[in-house]
Amino acid sequence: MKFFSRRVEDPQWYKKAVGGMWQEIGELQFNFLLSQGLKPTDYFLDIGCGSLRGGIHFIKYLRQKHYFGTDIDEELLKVGKGEIRLNHLNSKNPTHIHDGDFELTKLGRKFHYVVAISVFTHLPLNDIIKCILNVEKVLYKNGRFYATFFENGRGKFNLKPLFHHREDGSDIKTFFNKDPFHYDRQTFRWICKGTTIKVKYLGDWKHPRSQKMLMFTKA
Q: Would you say the pTM of this structure is higher than 0.90?
């Protein structure tokens, strides 16, 4: 199994597998969404929910059956379900499923809020387009989709790697053509042309690894 040796050696492997700072970034995204108006009665979709570092907080806060999470990594989904049991949240009946192709309509409902934290940082452009177009299908009118990305502030003609400052004093290197990816703001505006989605750059939201925030709103 993919992570067997890591599970044996370190029961907390999954908190490192998602980049570390599991508790800190989970609380950060929860508090950010609260500041953006999230209510317990809202239906919420967490794309790339993984080990539920943010999901645990959202499941506790939202009403029963209002949290939905998807992820491509089945092993992370398993430990996420373990976190649900550990935090005594099974009574909230969250939906927590494997999805590697953004087939979001199979969830069978629409959402007021959708998030994709540290997802676009690992996706090539065509997959980002697929994600945004499929989110459009499941957003309520005036619904919001928040996604983080590494910003290429030099514009689309920059083909060189970039360095982004981390809170611990180190830098992370990103690329235009391989993981971890960076993108310029105009690319997201181009994706949204001809759709019902409008994008707004929110920028810094205190992410410790300099990921910037975008907000997509359905008209």
A: yes
